[in-house]
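Board notes (copied after class):
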Amino acid sequence: MSVLTRDEAQTRAQILDVERYTIALDLTTGEETFDSATVIRFTARAAGDTFVEVKPATLRSISLDGQPLDPDLLDGNRYPLTKITAGPHELRVDAAMHYSRTGEGMHRFTDPTDGETYVYTQLFMEDVQRVFAAFDQPDLKSVFAIDVTAPEGWTVLGNGVAEHTGEGRWTIAATPLVSTYLVAVAAGPWHSVTTEHAGLPFGIHCRRSLAPYLDADADEILDITRALYDRYHEKFDEPYPFDSYDQAFVPEFNAGAMENPGLVTFRDEFVYRSAVTDTERQTRAMVIAHEMAHMWFGDLVTLAWWDDIWLNESFAEYMGYQTLTEAALPRALNSVPAGETPFPDTWVDFGVARKGWGYDADQRPSTHPVAPDPDAVPDTASALLNFDGISYAKGASALRQLVAWLGEKDFLAGINTHFARHRFANATLADFIDNLASATDRDVHAWAEQWLRTTGIDTLTAEISSPEPTAGPTVPNGNGQSWALTVTRDGSRPHRVTVGAYDHALGTQGAPGHLALRDRFDLDVPGDGTPTIRPGRRPALVVLNDGDLTYAKVRLDTTSWDTVLTSLSGIPDALTRAVVWNTARDMVRDAQLPPATYLATARTHLPHETDLALVQGVLSFAAGQVVDRYTIPEDLPAARATLTDLCRDLIRRTEDGSQPGLRLIAVRHFIDAATQPDTLRSWLDEGTVHGGPELDPELRWRILTRLAVLGATDETTIAAALEADPSATGREGAARCRAALPTAQAKAAAWDALFTDDTLSNYLFTATAQGFWQPGQEELTDDYVARFYPDAVALAARRGPAIAEAAGRYAFPAYAVDPTSLGTGIRALEDPALTPALRRKLVDQLDDLRRALAVRSAVALAD
């Protein structure tokens, strides 16, 4: 299949205006294919040659202006349209199209719980061609009118209001001008909850087997949706540009969500079957906010080419977190008074859960600017690689720094100018910066060059000293004392940061030393080199980037770091604690802080942490990286004991039932860290954790997975558990458990399912891969390390980008942390058959492996 190049897209956009697509989809033709009939009305500005894209199972017929064309001329995914005359044309394409099991194109899923079938589209980048013929590029916007024939009893959803006209036929209201990749259809026997807001129909939808769980959260989801909708209308001058707002929670979805105008699709794990924490509810709310922001930035105004994908994702990421923080909900949620947001500072979660994603991506060989040069994104295959921590987390961090520097008033004025100038059209980075510049006297173009066109992370280091005595009298209110701060910058970007100065204060009972904020002030970095003089004695702790308004590594002075080790949990503000925990995380990754010290700090301070996002973020890094990858083998028993003891401390702290979210986090991590099966078996047999919570499906499968890893369960037990929970997540849990069993037979069967069978859906593939590689099972899996590379290359070529990405992420031998594994991987990168999606994942994984080896080497040398 040919990928579309930027040059080809620019040439075609100069030739064509596409006015309207009329599409008829028939979903009643069988389980393998559906029928797709497309009429495209377009105008050629001048005579010439072009092509239309389609990926059919069978191309039945194609005609131009009533004249039949030869279907056999289809070349891969391109049908050539030669000698097009200037003027209006009508292209008709009739085809049978394959359903997908990989989340690409028209995905088909049969729910094992009740046997009901659902289909939905995911047409991002190039996958519209799997559903209907199209001139598939973002700057050829058009009107889309779609009719769908579906089985009786199904409901059809689309970008506009869908009307059932009888006998399974549905007509979806024509869209305004939108890009091909934003067209959406979802069909099946959906369970729906509908309402109306601001004169528009709103709805949330899921498969029927999840109906009780959606109903339990429907008020919360709809209240959040309405509050965000109202808040965006306070920010944006342009009204919501579509005729309805549906949110469909769909099965086996590859992304978190997709911003299809009028029909946002979400992975249906956001319909919670099991207990979740308030932080997880906040994440769902943030995703709702993120996708709604796209209705303006991405849908109303769309990038012209994929080099500007950050314009979509960075903006939605920033606006999602910021607007969720601002939106006041009309209904009390989790005991929060009505009229107050239950998410008072979503930026804590961003700092600890998302920002590290950007930092990690920006330090790999695959890093790229937030706004890459157009020549760096020559085609759609390369564009797909930029959906990463840089386009999302780093870009959002850069926008947050821009707002701090520019001021929110001028920022929003520039955004509203952008919407007004480019509504229902396309725009570039240059357009965006020009529109921001029109609202301020600041040099936004220079800012963009420094922040958006460069790679890497700056490091800001604090140095504290006592100034010369002559400086004392110039500092008021210092009682004759003063201290001086000098910030050095390793990097090239300007930063506006807040500095926090903290003193020791009276500690709370049972907690490490409490700290009190003495002073908080803004600082521009770099300055003129003159130290900043502040009154009073030297603080116990000085934190750069207090408030986390910039994107940079932070290094504390020695005295401040000593204070952190003893008093981190005593820092009064959660966002400041997030900055400090990120500093510790960066230092571990840079081999500047021993993994054992990080674990000891977590053991000391997490039992006193009140922010669930911080607890979850620190525990996840401690378990998934510090213990499983960075700790040398001889230190592993002590590291695992520390992690287990920490989880046990948190469980004990929550015995009174007052902090169910914290207890749930602790129980999950205790299960994952367990080295002996007895406690887990007891919980499973009794159906409850001692002291609560009762085991829900998620906890049951988590325990079974860990017992499988430990060799303390068998196929009979797994089969019985699947019979008790025959849901989609039950099937995934069983696949994960079977692949985790420590037997040669189990590993061979899992490997065959992953790399030979080709029948696993995207979710079952991921679950099997997650189970296969386990720390402590190296004797069983060592022989598979070298096999991974050729098998993954062949798999990616057969099954496409989604499975290639899953293979690189989940089936990679991440726990084989040794030079031989690294060398094998580096040699594999020379394989010319590597697809771009798999190559990018391998480059990233091998760099992480190289970093893990460096950390281990530093520990061994220190010992």
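Comment from the instructor: Residues 836-862 form the longest helix (27 residues). The chain is about 45% helix and 20% strand.
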